[in-house]
Design goal:
Bit1; DUF2000; five-stranded mixed beta sheet; about 35% helix; alpha+beta; DUF2000 domain-containing protein; 7 strands
Length: about 140
């Protein structure tokens, strides 16, 4: 099935494995919480157990270096796409309010990005994510 929109998560490739997973999870939650109609219906197994609903479409995860993240961030901003960011200082905080404060303290072009998520029209995301490789 081909979707009109796309979800891309970009993670800095030099992070520890646990950091990559943590960043990916937080960024995916931002897309889920911020994009209307992107979540499908709850699941149910053959025994009647209920499970939480998930994204209705695939999520593509990419790996790149700090320069690639900065370039992708600038492209996403210029196309006015829905963006979530995760910066280095967020590894040192313990709650959502502190995370928002760390991002608010840094201008967009100086954010020490370790990951970002973008959601929007397929064509715009293809241009924004051009040159990135899927995470191994």
């Amino acid at each position: 099935m081909r979707f009109d929109t796309k979800i891309g998560i970009v993670v800095r490739e030099d992070l520890a494995a646990w950091q990559k997973l943590n960043v990916t999870a937080f960024l995916a939650s931002a897309v889920a919480g911020g994009a209307e109609g992107i979540i499908g219906e709850p699941y149910q197994d053959g025994s009647g157990n209920l499970y939480l609903a998930m994204f209705r479409q695939p999520v593509l995860v990419y790996a790149t270096d700090a320069e690639g993240l900065a370039r992708t961030h600038a492209r996403a901003l210029s196309r006015e796409l829905a963006i979530a960011v995760y910066i280095e200082d967020m590894f040192k905080t313990g709650h959502d309010e502190a995370n928002r404060a760390t991002v608010r303290a840094v201008p967009a072009d100086a954010l020490p990005l370790v990951g970002l998520a973008v959601h929007g029209p397929r064509n715009a995301l293809d241009k924004t994510l051009k040159g990135l490789t899927l995470h191994p």
